Amino acid sequence: MKKHLLSCLAAALFIAGCATTKTTTSSANQEQHRPQLHFTPPANWMNDPNGMVFYKGEYHLFYQHNPGGTTWGPMHWGHAISKDMLHWEHLPIALYPDELGTIFSGSAVVDVNNTSGLGTTENPPMVAIFTYHNEKLEKAGRNDYQTQGLAYSLDNGRTWKKYEQNPVLKNPGIRDYRDPKVSWNDKTQQWVMTLAVLDHIEFYSSPNLKEWKKLSEFGKSYGGHGGVWECPDLFPLTVNGQQKWVLLVSINPGGPNGGSATQYFVGDFNGQSFTSDNPPQTTLWVDHGKDNYAGVTWSNIPASDGRRLFLGWMSNWQYANEVPTVAWRSAMTLPRELTLRQTKEGLRLLSQPVKELQKLRTKAISLKAQEVQGTLDLSSRYKLNLPLLELDLNLDVSQAQEITLKFSNTKGEQLNLGYSVKQEELFIDRTQAGKIAFKDNFPGRHVAPIKLENGKLRLHLILDFTSVEVFANGGQKVMTEIFFPNENFTQVELVTDGVTKLQDSKAYILQPAF
Ligand code: FRU
Question: Could you count the other beta carbons within 10 Å of the beta carbon of residue 198?
Fold first, then answer.
């Protein structure tokens, strides 16, 4: 902790003390529980990723941030930039609260044609659209305390000005009216705002980002409704030469394993309204683990790249304010690429870690093809370095009942990740993974249903000190979970009940990003 804490001591008093700290690969972080691949704030509280936009070779990441403490509080937009979504440079806070409210979640775009008139075509503005949350109005018992505001930057996101005529979208009297995600619609040549409104999504359009008109609503009777709808995203993806639209909607609570999670819909958007391909009662999840929330995708990724790149907040509102980290709270997920795939059930969203992650591999180790019965200690057999590790295992579990990857330390704490053949489900069990008592809904065995073909299971996973992300069968099912062992995990064993065939599998030693 020591090193980073010292450099951030000032943060307790004044965040700018470490706001411009450049994170480098040489200064591996020694702080307990701090990941070495995943983005974390230098100090204090973080939740949702915001304003993710790519401009002039830089991925911008803004985030919900309370610079005054390690729990949720008055929201600002923290800011960091990266050239590869893995190595981040922390920049000063971009947006501060003002008389209209604190700064809740939202998005950013590059207004390439200067439709807003806030820049020039030679120097187009970067425009952020976010939710103002006015606590005074809330306390006064009013319902219209969330409005949408605009800010812009003419220097690549380094400094920001609020638009003088904020808010750009007033509240019609609905308490949950937030998290605008803005994108340019080629068909209508208008901006589209996708907004979360209590239990549904509303779409608005604008020629200039400043004046908005309501287009349509979606979702009151579709998908999961166990909690409030938040942080939507709407984007096209091409599958089999056809353009389809994906609508992401975070929901809290009501996730598949409790608390917060992100659902998605696949369908069409005609520039005015969204229609779902699936029947209303279908609920699809971006990630079945408990720790991937409020995720959205980057705007303005160049067509020459063409990927749809996603990042989520790696926590859950059930316990986010209580997790046992000291100087900061929360990390983001690893950046992921989203694609659509045709399955028997219909089109489904696949998530994979971005290819940039491969640059952090320092060594690839091929695991011998073999039949495993009982326990195979992968870490000592293949000299694997934990707790930073990537595994890509191809397993045949047709003669097994259950397989488990057991990550453990010398204190006997363990995280179990595996597949139950009988239940046809992937699971992560963190009940014995170290610190769990901080919140009763933190420990648990969490599951994701997945049916195998001929017993074939591919488990691609990334372990980073205090989190694991597993992408099963090419990203068809994903689980992301955090945990807090009292001592780092140093061992990983493959434990099988029955016979498991290990084929064409690899382990990668990774270098820290920080
Ligand atoms: C989602 C969320 C958003 C809101 C923000 C406040 O996690 O509740 O709906 O804008 O967090 O920090």
Answer: 14
User: DSSP H helical segments within 135-181, as ranges?
Assistant: 135-139
Find the domain containing 22 and state its range: 8-353
pLDDT for residue 179 is more than 60: yes
pLDDT digits (tens, 9 = 90+) for 109-131: 999 999 999 999 999 999 999 99
Q: What is the pLDDT of residues 258-290, one digit of tens each?
A: 999 999 999 999 999 999 999 999 999 999 999
Identify whether 472 is part of a domain.
Answer: yes
| Structural domain contains residue 134 | yes
Question: Within 6 Å (CB) of ligand 1, which residues are found?
Answer: 47-48, 64, 75, 104-105, 131, 178-179, 230-231, 294
The reply to whether 367 and 347 lie within a common domain is no
Same domain? For 349 and 368 the reply is: no
Alpha helices by DSSP H, listed for 348-497, are 378-382
Nearest CA to 49 among 33, 36, 60? Answer: 60
411 and 305 both lie in a single domain: no
For residue 24, pLDDT beyond 50:
no
Residue 176 appears among annotated catalytic residues: no
CATH of residue 368? 2.60.120.560
Q: Is 262 left (phi over 0), alpha (psi -120 to 50) or beta?
A: beta
Q: How far is the CA of 307 from the centre of ligand 1 (A)?
A: 26
**Cα–ligand 1 centroid distance for 312 (angstroms):** 12
Of 5-9, 41-45, 65-69, 390-394, the least confident: 5-9
Shortest-distance atom of ligand 1 to CA 105: 10
Point out the domain boundary residue: 353, 385, 407: 353
Q: pLDDT tens digits, residue range 63-110?
A: 999 999 999 999 999 999 999 999 999 999 999 999 999 999 999 999
pLDDT at 21 over 60: no
User: Which residue, 353, 387, 420, sits at the end of a domain?
Assistant: 353
Helical (H) or strand (E) element with 3: helix 2-7
- Residue 244 tokens read as 């389809």
**DSSP summary character for residue 368:** P
Q: Indicate whether 330 belongs to any domain.
A: yes
User: Are 58 and 104 in a shared domain?
Assistant: yes
**Closest ligand 1 atom to Cα of 196:** 9
Total count of domains within the chain: 2
Same domain, 234 and 172: yes
pLDDT at 3 over 80: no
Q: What was the pLDDT predicted at 29?
A: 54
Q: Does 423 reside within a domain?
A: yes
pTM of this prediction? Answer: 0.94
Do 289 and 393 fall within a single domain? no
